[in-house]
TrEMBL record:
Gene Ontology molecular function terms on file: heme binding; iron ion binding; monooxygenase activity; oxidoreductase activity, acting on paired donors, with incorporation or reduction of molecular oxygen
Keyword annotations: Heme, Iron, Metal-binding, Monooxygenase, Oxidoreductase
Protein family per UniProt: Belongs to the cytochrome P450 family.
PROSITE patterns: CYTOCHROME_P450
UniProt organism field: Streptomyces albiflavescens
InterPro entries assigned: Cyt_P450, Cyt_P450_B, Cyt_P450_CS, Cyt_P450_sf
Matches recorded under Gene3D superfamilies: Cytochrome P450
Superkingdom classification of source: Bacteria
Protein name, entry field: Cytochrome P450
Amino acid sequence: METETERKTTVADEVDGVLAELFLTPDGLRDPYPRYERIQELAAVHHTALGHWVVTGYDDVNAFLRSQHALKDPYRVFAPWVGKDDWQDHAALRRLPNIMLWANPPDHTRLRKLAGFAFTNRAVQAMRPQVTEMVERLADRLEREGSLDYMKDFAFPLPAMATGRMLGIPDADLSSLQGPMRAFQDIYELGLTPDDLAECDKGAQFTDDYFSGLVEERRKNPGDDLLSALIAAKDGEDKLSQGELIGMCNLLFGAGFETTTNLLGNGMLALLRHPDQMDRLRADLSLVPGAVEEMLRYDSPTQLGNRVTDGPVEIAGVEIPVGSSVVALVGAAHRDPRRYPDPTRFDVTRADAPVLSFSSGIHYCLGASLARMEAQIAFTTLLRRFPGLRFDGEDTVEFRPRLTLRGVESLPIAIG
């Protein structure tokens, strides 16, 4: 008969095997959800053979992300593929300490206060007419051409234009920023190779150079845009440094297009694969706001968050010790049957389904309300204007081979 110690060892070995499939195999990256389900069946909290901790349940992930002892530490998170002594050799890594995403209090509190004015509900709602006009213009193109690559011709341009308009980026520059910004954001994926890191560095250097030039231009010629306001923003004698301004531009533009682009793409794919839900939504467009929340839950554009503990944290009766590296699996939390009845079902009428796609606690995304508004306007418009919206080659749909930021590479659609 197997002893309790042997049983725990067997379970731990199986969880490690499932995690290896999740992060390191094409099938795991293409469809992580069966792996999440299996991990949740085996263990709520798991200490991996590589020394990381993994948390998967909704309440546990939410509690951990809100813990005052769960801190951002880029040096620790990225240590597996670059030592701290080599940090300055990599443009993608040099950026991280200057951006709010990787800051902790009091620096995080300071940066958020200086930037937060731009993302009040009033400020976001003031953008609604502009976002509506952008969506209608992109929909006009679909109507003219009859078919297009939704990712390339709709899901990227919309958030890029919206965030670019806020920051004061000329529309003509947006397409040149997409590739480099996407290359940099691969830095957030686990298990990068040296070649991967080199591509991240190239992307980071390009966007750093671009935003450095834009900051200098706005210093000389302030405009009616967010970047000019950030340059002028003060809290007493405090203001953003040059590095912090460049970091803020990279953060706001990168998050503004990548996360929202993936929300638009993953959400559209879910609707196309569930035509009954698309029909239900089209019949009652008042359901769109709730449907966007279901899209965020069902196939989240952000699948995980990394933290390091500076104090012991108890999760599901397990004490995670000081100095631990923890991966909070948001995608798994969104399929937790204890929080969501029938979690594998895509249901645009699902109620009371709060999501963690924009994190939780002090790192809750500043731009969450803007992303939601863009998606709500986009899906309302497309469903209203195109009753024959359909796949134009479902067999060509592929997810990018990434997990942290999950999104579709290409999604051909047609309107009749």
